[in-house]
Amino acid sequence: MLSLHTNAATLSAQNSLGRTQASLSTSMTRLSTGFRINSAMDDAAGLQIATRLKAQTSGMAVAMRNTQNSISMLQTAEGALNEVTNILTRMKDLATQAADGSSSATDQGAMQKEFNSLTTELGNIISNTSFGGSKLLNNGTDGKFTAEVNFQIGSESSEQMKFDIKDSLGKMHTAISTAAGDFSGSTLEEGEEFEAGENAGKEISDVPEDDDTAPSAATGATNANGTIANLKAAIEAVSTVRSEMGAAANRLDHVYNNLSNVSTNTKNATGRIMDVDFATESANMTSKQMLMQAGTAMLKQTNSMSSMVMSLLQ
């Protein structure tokens, strides 16, 4: 029907051209941003899923850094205990040498000086080894491992790894204190006294040989012989703590590897939802551009239909 008031062909061409223009705009936006979903209108369900996956991936990235920091902390403490083991081994060698009847009093005096110096360094290492400002091996209230430590190893609140060596650490301090009476492995608060036995700090000559609380030392064959067993126990106590730290570090390393695998696959899943396929979208854009050209040409043709009506009146 030819009508001056309503040009149905023009209206149809305008609607088609509007839809094509909207699709072309969407394709250009996707190609310019690289994302298939740029707003919730593009894919509401996909955006919700992708947002959840992104949050999980971000949390896992932080958890991966946490595991690396935790491993570094444990390695710092374990490295310090390795040196403690070396010192205790040397002290045991001194005690073994002093326990021999061939050692003179002068020899034993020299051994005692080295023994005392090593004891002081034991206290220095254990009291002052720190990571990020936190004391690690200290037996005082500020010691990191005097309480349970929770490592955050995942993006969820429940994904934690508990690390508790306070009992083993306490036994280690006790064993070292027994083997080296002058040893102090804690930072003392003002006015606080370190309990290391009533004879701690005394010279061997000041302590009766039958006193069970005699300080460990290399001087004197009788005391030196007893010190050998105490130092052996101390070395074993240190090894126990090192073993627990090593096991925890190994577990954290496996946690890191698993998180890396999960994170990689989660990112891939997010990419499949969010990222645009450039080959497909480029083809869509080309198609929409051709439709725009065709639609514009047809709209021009439909606008000339009114002139056909006027020709009937001539």
TrEMBL record:
<dbReference type="Pfam" id="PF00700">
    <property type="entry name" value="Flagellin_C"/>
</dbReference>
<feature type="region of interest" description="Disordered">
    <location>
        <begin position="181"/>
        <end position="222"/>
    </location>
</feature>
<keyword id="KW-0975">Bacterial flagellum</keyword>
<keyword id="KW-0282">Flagellum</keyword>
<feature type="domain" description="Flagellin C-terminal">
    <location>
        <begin position="229"/>
        <end position="313"/>
    </location>
</feature>
<dbReference type="InterPro" id="IPR046358">
    <property type="entry name" value="Flagellin_C"/>
</dbReference>
<keyword id="KW-0964">Secreted</keyword>
<dbReference type="InterPro" id="IPR001029">
    <property type="entry name" value="Flagellin_N"/>
</dbReference>
<protein>
    <recommendedName>
        <fullName>Flagellin</fullName>
    </recommendedName>
</protein>
<comment type="similarity">
    <text>Belongs to the bacterial flagellin family.</text>
</comment>
<dbReference type="InterPro" id="IPR001492">
    <property type="entry name" value="Flagellin"/>
</dbReference>
<comment type="function">
    <text>Flagellin is the subunit protein which polymerizes to form the filaments of bacterial flagella.</text>
</comment>
<feature type="domain" description="Flagellin N-terminal">
    <location>
        <begin position="6"/>
        <end position="139"/>
    </location>
</feature>
<dbReference type="Pfam" id="PF00669">
    <property type="entry name" value="Flagellin_N"/>
</dbReference>
<keyword id="KW-0966">Cell projection</keyword>
<keyword id="KW-0969">Cilium</keyword>
